[in-house]
Specification:
By secondary structure, the chain is an all-alpha fold. The chain has one domain. The chain is 82% helix and 0% strand. It has five helices and no strands. The longest helix has 39 residues. The structure holds fe (ii) ion (2 copies). The site of one fe (ii) ion has 5 residues, from helix 2 and helix 5.
């Protein structure tokens, strides 16, 4: 795999850039949810589109991590990280499921303030879970690559 030969800062830079991009998308959706504009069917539809785009982006991000990605390389370098890495990967379907549930609840064409507020609450819960997931993931990759550097 070509990335095996890359310098470690490049690999860490790539994963951190991916996480920053996710964070930017979350911020944009957070701003949409917080805007004081009236709740209309168009606004709900636009939020759904944004959430579905985030969902697709996340799915691709998870797939990249699961197949020959950074986690795998970290485990190859430091085998004891396998337990933590497996636990992190198991969170992927759960996180996508949480996003699906959020979108599903918005699909009803309901423009009530209560539904919008619940979507905001659900979104914050999801964003916190994703942030914690990415934090754990970065820690595993960091540890894998740092310890390898120390031994070589
Ligand atoms: Fe992940
Ligand atoms: Fe990630």
């Amino acid at each position: 795999m070509p990335w095996l030969n890359r310098a470690d800062p490049v690999i860490m830079g790539h994963i951190l850039a991916e996480h920053r991009e996710l964070f930017t998308r979350l911020q944009a959706l957070r701003a949409t949810l917080a805007a004081a504009a009236p709740i209309t069917a168009e606004r709900v539809a636009s939020l759904r589109v944004g959430l579905l785009e985030l969902r697709e982006h996340l799915r691709a991000h998870f797939e990249q991590e699961e197949h020959g990605g950074f986690m795998e390389e970290s485990i190859a370098r430091i085998p004891r990280l396998a337990v933590a890495a497996a636990g992190i990967v198991r969170q992927h379907p759960t996180l996508l499921g949480e996003l699906d549930a959020l979108v599903e609840r918005l699909a009803q064409g309901d423009v009530s303030a209560a539904t919008w507020a619940r979507a905001g609450g659900d979104f914050e819960e999801f964003a916190a879970a994703l942030a914690e997931h990415e934090r754990q993931e970065t820690a595993v990759v960091q540890e894998g690559f740092n310890e390898d550097l120390g031994l070589s």
